[in-house]
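Support request from a user on the community tier.

User writes: "When I paste my structure tokens into the form, the page sometimes reloads and wipes my input. The last time it worked, I copied everything first. Here is what I submitted, just in case something in the input itself triggers the reload:"
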């Protein structure tokens, strides 16, 4: 059941939107899906969510029509998660958070975490929605991402930490 079917307490679209995506963990799950992660383990590694927390967020996103599950393995049955049209339509919100975070939440001299290149013309887009070279409005599907060295290292460290913890528990 979708959360809004339980009863709408307001007509405010901001309040209604936060019912779907209004917490840190859901936002981080969506970030990972936009970055190309589709499997539970990789999303868990990069968000650092507990398995229970991640499962809850993914189920909510599925119930709200933001993601769909698709089986990728029969035995045991395992799913990958893919953004729906509704989920892809949320990207400008993530982009706005990224732009705001890059502008207001970084130390001086700290580089941009992800560089986006417009596939059509090959130029870096920066933090805008318009390619500064060709003037086209860009969406996530129009861009190639390159992680900065510090961000790539941070993400790899999470993978290593996860693998080490998994190996210790086996």
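"...and here is what came back when it finally went through:"
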């Amino acid at each position: 059941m979708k959360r809004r079917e339980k009863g709408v307490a307001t007509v405010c679209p901001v309040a209604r939107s936060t019912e779907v995506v209004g917490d840190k963990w859901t936002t981080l799950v969506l970030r990972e899906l936009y970055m190309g992660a589709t499997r539970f383990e990789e999303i868990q590694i990069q968000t650092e969510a507990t398995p229970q927390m991640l499962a809850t967020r993914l189920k909510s996103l599925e119930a709200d029509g933001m993601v769909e599950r698709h089986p990728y393995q029969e035995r045991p049955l395992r799913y990958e998660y893919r953004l729906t049209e509704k989920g892809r339509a949320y990207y400008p919100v993530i982009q706005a958070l990224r732009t705001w975070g890059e502008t207001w939440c970084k130390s001086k001299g700290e580089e941009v975490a992800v560089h986006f290149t417009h596939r059509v013309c090959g130029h870096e887009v920066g933090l805008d929605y318009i390619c500064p070279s060709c003037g086209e409005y860009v969406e996530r599907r129009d861009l190639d991402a390159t992680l900065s060295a510090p961000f790539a290292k941070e993400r790899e460290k999470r993978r290593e930490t996860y693998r080490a913890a998994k190996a210790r528990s086996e």
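Agent notes: The reload is a front-end session timeout and is unrelated to the input. Residues 118 and 143 are 5 Å apart (CA to CA). The first helix runs from residue 13 to 21. Escalated to web team.
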